[in-house]
Amino acid sequence: MQLFRQVSEFAPALSMDQINGYLILYFYPKANTPGCTREAQDFTALLPEFHKLDAEVVGVSPDKPETQAKFIQAKSLAVTMRSDPDKALARAFGALKESGGILRSTFLIDRAGIVRAEWRKVKVDGHAQEVLETLRALYESDRRINPLISARRAVRALAEAPVSREEIETMIAAAHLAPSCFNNQPWRFVAIDDPQTLAAVKGAMPKGNYWTGPAPAIIAVTSKSEIDCQLSDNRDYYLFDCGMAVSNLMVQATGMGLVAHPIAGYNPVKVKELLGIPDDYVLITLVIIGRPGDPETLSEKHREVELGPRNRKPLTDVLFWNRFEERS
Ligand SMILES: Cc1cc2nc3c(=O)[nH]c(=O)nc-3n(C[C@H](O)[C@H](O)[C@H](O)COP(=O)(O)O)c2cc1C
After folding, report:
1. Whose CA is nearest to atom 21 of ligand 1?
2. For residue 153, how far is its CA from the centre of ligand 1 (angstroms)?
3. What is the DSSP string of 121-141?
């Protein structure tokens, strides 16, 4: 499975400003030949079904644009065609034979630029239908709750294992991509990995947060009201925006197999002093960073939570349609 950093990486090569949904990118050797005609006609016949699933079908070949245009007209095709005369795109996707010819291949790419399915040495018979069925299954699973959101937990059992600065920077870079009011980016992070500072910060926590002991790093998240939108009716957005940033950070950590657990249990005045954070800043949270460890190291209460099911109020307690209802 290939991963493209962003869809925009290959959108210019396809002369597309942006790709809004799924992209079915299929490489074919030569316009007007029997196999390539059948493949294009099969995709054309199913195009309305692909569109219903937010997918665009783009056929790519080394043919000139004029040849492709004639092909479309002569065979009544509706798929989009793109010319790749120097086979650069085919090479990038590994859709070239050793001889340099095109290896008939199809890639199903999502809007994050991830190749979710790929077919190489394609046999034309039934291929378009198979791609459609794969897309349908992905479309449905992508409309369920994002697996990284489901998988994130406030994990407490930590391993005695390091986390690199590169990993910490990646998590913070993900946090920094969060939206914020007026793009104020009010979050400030102090990443703590020096053993002495770490020990001092852990020393400013109550007994209940004993489980932070093995954490190889902590990210302090701080901000103040004045550096973000202060709007009418108590809408001070700095806490909200920092919350979104931490949420990004946690999801990113989950994807990386790391723990990022925000806590409120610490002495904020003491920790601010330890880290040189000015008095007028709020130390919103300390995010405990580490790798998942053995739940046996936890207290009985925490072990039960760690291994137990996700505990949430019913959705009907927090979601109201069209009119607010006060519920406890
Ligand atoms: C702002 C905040 C403060 C928290 N403080 C602590 C804490 O001091 N100690 C702790 O063990 N867990 C703390 N938690 C973890 C929560 O208890 C946990 O997120 C909640 O029980 C839901 O569980 P889940 O995150 O696994 O879904 C905190 C979480 C948040 C978001």
Report:
1. 154
2. 9
3. S--STTHHHHHHHHHHHHHHH
